[in-house]
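## Example pair
The file below holds two records. Each record gives the amino-acid sequence first, followed by its structure token line.
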Amino acid sequence: MRRRVLIVDDHVGFRGRARQLLESEGYDVVGEAQDGTTALAEAARLGPDIVLLDVQLPDLDGFEVARLLMARGVFAAVILISGRDRAEYGDQIEASPALGFLPKSELSAAAIDALLLGMS
């Protein structure tokens, strides 16, 4: 079964690269969003299995979007991503309801699969 992914990032170039990478590795990218508000609407509408969520968005940060997704009953596996290092976010990653964190430079189906495997 192909996992359905929503990609949330304010950089259109990154969204395109992530889509191409994930689709080539067997994922079904069902949508994209450029900010937190759109991400919330698209996640509710599309019902993805996974939300690939940038921490730095122009309106809401990824931590807030992850909290709101859970509060609104969207039970997708949220994976936070960033071009910045994990250490820059301190305890915010562990305190969030997100499944985990991936640096954008390490994005791959294998890295997502490893996080999902740790969930089960």
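Second record, same layout:
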Amino acid sequence: MQVIPVIDLMGGLVVRARMGDRDAYRPIETPLSRTADPVDVVCGLMQLSSFPILYVADLDAIRRHGENSDVLIRLREAFPQVVFWIDNGAADVEATKSARRFGEPVLGSESQRDLSLLTSQRDALLSLDFRADEFLGPPEIWTRSEAWPNRVIVMTLARVGADSGPDVHRIASVRARAGVRQLYAAGGLRDARDLEVLKVAGAAGVLVASALHDGRLSPDDLRPE
């Protein structure tokens, strides 16, 4: 089970995400860092484990309120060994090119107009975005699983930062349709016991923020099996 830290960027800082209510997000306060500066926060995360992958959500770009390219440049320079998964709300090829300057693009279903970008960017990651039981995005992205790329994130926004437990039933249902694709859970992870539950449900990895900052996942929990 691969643990992938998440940082959410807004106004040049890392913010604490909770239940997808982006207007209410505030700069993160964490024992891992003295500040909410992204480089400081990632330095703190790297003290827990040498994470090879880190997920970055540029919330300003996703909401069409600007972008955080300057932050992404700093992160790439400070952590050249890390592969960054970049969700910048890409809805066209130019936005995916921008993401590729810094790492691997994540195509969030909530940002898509149709299947065209997904089918033209086969090496990108797909994030299947849900709010409660509602799928966010064009219905054909959900129904046409044959168009999914090899790596798929199952993002339950209502559980992000809520410590309510992962959406195991949704992971299992997506697993049944995904074939050999790698699935990554996002939202609700509480502790190491949830890692085992997700593994049984068919997840290859999990995106995590709160459980790392709150100390509910220890360095021992993060050691590769």
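Notes on the second record: The chain has nine helices and eleven strands. The chain has a mean pLDDT of 93.
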